[in-house]
Amino acid sequence: xxxxxxxxxxxxxxxxxxxxxxxxxxxxxxxxxxxxxxxxxxxxxxxxxxxxxxxxxxxxxxxxxxxxxxxxxxxxxxxxxxxxxxxxxxxxxxxxxxxxxxxxxxxxxxxxxxxxxxxxxxxxxxxxxxxxxxxxxxxxxxxxxxxxxxxx
Length: 152
Known about the structure:
With 152 residues, the protein is mostly helical. Helices cover 74% and strands 0% of the residues.
């Protein structure tokens, strides 16, 4: 789908406002809830409990917690989509903030592209396949290994 310039600008303005809201909510969550509590609040994955395999989202909460603690590599190992979206979020918000602060003199704002969503879909699918192939073919439970060596 092609976006005309006016639609793209409007979409990016809305995404920027949503991003500011997310930053505010994340700030409040970190200030009000210890990360250890967030890690304990995660509910068990029903897909994993029933099938023994991981769902496409398994590892996401742990990835958020370890990324919040500053460990990007471990976050990527738990679930790459978290680090991917964190990088996109920082790039988008920083570039648009610079544009707004300079009143458009430095219009370096990251432009919305559907390709970012397609890349996210591929990352989730690849993560799903790798974790479950390792589990089924080699009896190697990646998330269990990560948990054993890196308690949250």
